[in-house]
Structure formats: C-alpha cells, structure tokens
Design goal:
Layout lengths: L1 H17 L2 H10 L1 H21 L4 E8 L22 H6 L6 H9 L2 H11 L1 H4 L7 H11 E5 L5 E7 L2 H59 L9 H25 L7 H18 L7 H30 L7 E4 L12 H35 L1 H19 L1
Helix pairs in contact: 3-13, 6-8, 6-9, 9-12, 10-11, 10-12
Length: about 400
C-alpha cells in the first residue's frame, strides 16, 4: 500500500511541475464568466452599501500652549524665579517643554469628558436608552482624537454624523480645557499664596522683635546705634540672609511639586548650602549694638523679598484669564470625512476577484486529486468490490 501511495504522490508532483503560466491562464479564461459575474455583483453591492452607510463629518480645533510665564513679577525688588519652577507647568500646562502633554492629560480626563457630554446633551444625542454615562463616555472617546503635532500644538478632532454637533463638541473640549487649567492654576496660586503668607507673617514678627530689641538697647544704654563704617558689610550680610530666605521659599514650593531627584531641586539645595557656608564663615560681632543693627537690616531685607512675592501671589490667585491660545476654532465641516466610498468599493472589488480565483484553484485542485485517486489500483479494486456487493444484494 505504501508503494501505491508513493506512486500517487509522484504523479501529482509531476503534474504540478508540468503546470506553467499558460495552464493558469487557461484555467482563468475557462472560469472568466464566474470571475466577472462575482466582480460585478460584489462591486454593485459595495456601491449600494457605501451610499447607505451614514456620513461622518470631522471638525478640527487646534490650540497652542503658551510660553513660560512669570508667576511673580520683579516689582523692582525681588527676582521672579518662582514661576520658573516646574509647579506652574505641572498643573496649569504653562510649561513650554511639557505643557502640550499636560493639556492632553486634561483633555483625556474623565472630568472634562463628562462635562462635554452634559453640556452637549450627548446621552440623548447618542440615543442611549438607559442614560448610562459610562456608555456615553465610551462612545464619545471613540469619536474624539487628540494629537500633539510636530510644532508642539494640539489638534482636537471630533467625528459625528452632524457637522454642527462635531464642531460644538470640539469647541466645548477647548472651553473645558481652559476652564480646568484656570481652576488648577488658581489652586496652585492659592497654595503658593498661603505658603508665602505664613513665611511673611513670621518675617514681620521677627522684624518687629529685632526692632524692639534695638530700641530697648538704645533706651538702656543711651547710645544711638549708627555704625556708618560697617554699613556696607552689614548690608552684604543682610543680602545673604535675604537670598537664603528666598531660596528656602523656592525649596519649600519645589519639594511639594516635583520629585526628589529633580535637577532643579538638587541645584537649589546646592545653592542653599553655599549660602549657609558663607554665612557660617562670617564672624559674629562682639558688640551688641552692631548685632542688633545687623538683625534689623537682615529682617528688613527678608521682608523686602517676600512682600512683592506675596502681592503677586494674591494677583495670580484672582486671575481668571484664558491660559491657552486657540489657533483654529472648530467650524462645521462642509464635506464628509468618511466613508471613503471609492476606497470601500475598490477593496471589496479586489477581494471579490481574489476570493473567486482562490475558490477556482481550490476546486481545480480537488478535482485533480479525486481523479488521481480514481486512477490508483487500490481505488479500482474498492470500486469492483462495491459493485460486486451491489450485484449480490440485487440478486438476493
């Protein structure tokens, strides 16, 4: 039996080797009517279906994250370094480098999505019978795409069957992004204001205490403290203490806003250490009057640094201005975006031809295989046995 099977496989292999391009063309020509009919039927059906499919419109809006802004103005006295800290960009999306990605996080948030659904009454528009917010969120997210372009601006693309609804949804996303950014920025500004307010309160108390101590010393000693020769050195020391206080404020804010391994945080700690080294190397005056005068000058300098920062923090807390730049507002599109009828028809027409050819070759292969089996001695013997049994059964 194994020899007969090998002979059958050799015959089939030899037959395949003899097949050339003309044989394939002959098969396709033989079945040309079947291929053409299938092609025409599928193409017509694809054309009909493409016109029956609902039209989808795409509305697009684009926004640009603003450049780094200064949280605290110099006001002629204090350097405005706090706004340069990452805290402004982390929550409000104000950073030039990563602001676009912070905007994406806000746009994709559940809070913004639900707000857009409620303001556009999308549960009713999407015909969600059980008024499920979860279903509405899922459907809206399937129709909205956010993308950061190469020029660091964000596009908001919304698909809908109604062009006006698509434009309204896109513009609502932009409005909600701005609203949430303002809210987060206000919260951050309030936190900064409260922190600086406490530090300024302590500084004012310390200033008052040093002034009272200086006044008591003058009253008891009867000596007016006017160290004209040491004014420059005392002012320099006071400047160092003022810088130390400012660095401590910046450090306190950054420690609540960034990770411990942040480069700016580490650099700020190094700067503060250097200031402390300079202050520790300064010898303390043995004269009580100079010490008291120095303390008063130091506290005055600290207050001078903190007051403008505190005033600017109060201003930022009350800000209610747009924090995003709208490059293009979404408008109702005039033409549909999908379905792509031509592409749809071409795909199905191509598939019809490919499947027809595949079916033809499978059928031809099955026919050849059946014929080869019928030519084998084993199959003929089985046929004779079956015929003999049939004859016996008829005779009975």
């Amino acid at each position: 039996m194994d020899d007969k099977t090998d002979v059958m496989q050799d015959d089939v292999t030899a037959h395949h080797r003899k097949m050339n391009i003309l044989d394939h063309l002959a098969i396709l020509v033989q079945w040309r009517r079947f291929i053409i009919v299938n092609f025409l039927v599928v193409t017509v059906l694809a054309v009909v279906i493409s016109f029956l499919l609902p039209k989808w419109y795409k509305a697009t809006a684009s926004i640009l994250p603003p450049k780094d802004q200064v949280l605290f103005n110099q006001l002629g006295l204090a350097t405005s370094s706090l706004k340069g800290l990452p805290l402004g960009s982390r929550l409000g999306g104000m950073g030039q480098n990563n602001g676009a990605y912070n905007y994406l996080a806000i746009l994709k948030s559940r809070t913004v999505t639900e707000s857009v659904i409620n303001k556009n009454d999308l549960i009713k528009w999407y015909e969600i019978n059980d008024t499920s917010m979860e279903k509405a969120v899922k459907q809206l997210r399937g129709n909205v795409y956010f993308e950061v372009q190469d020029d660091n601006y964000i596009t908001v693309e919304v698909y809908d069957k109604d062009p006006r609804v698509a434009a309204n949804i896109a513009n609502t996303f932009i409005a909600e992004l701005n609203s949430v950014s303002i809210q987060l920025g206000t919260q951050e500004a309030r936190s900064n204001r409260e922190f600086i307010e406490k530090r300024l309160e302590y500084a004012n108390k310390d200033l008052k205490n040093t002034e009272d101590a200086l006044q008591k010393f003058q009253e008891h000693s009867g000596v007016m403290v006017l160290p004209d020769q040491n004014v420059s050195s005392i002012s320099a020391i006071a400047e160092l203490y003022g810088m130390k206080s400012k660095k401590e404020v910046e450090l306190g804010i950054m420690e609540r806003s960034v990770t411990k391994d942040n480069e700016m945080l580490q650099q700020l700690k190094i700067d503060l250490q250097e200031i402390n080294k300079k202050l520790s190397s300064i010898p303390q005056s043995s004269i009580e009057s100079f010490r008291l005068y120095r303390d008063v000058a130091i506290m005055q300098k600290i207050v001078e640094y903190l007051v403008p920062l505190y005033e600017q923090a109060k201003i930022d807390e009350q800000k209610d201005v747009p924090v995003i730049l709208v490059l293009d507002k979404a408008v109702p599109p005039e033409r549909k975006d999908r379905p792509k009828r031509m592409i749809f028809v071409l795909i199905w027409a191509t598939l019809s031809v490919a499947l027809s050819v595949l079916w033809i070759y499978l059928r031809q292969g099955l026919i050849r295989f059946t014929r080869k089996r019928q030519e084998t001695p084993l199959f003929q013997e089985l046929q004779h046995i079956a015929l003999f049994r049939k004859v016996i059964r008829n005779l009975q």
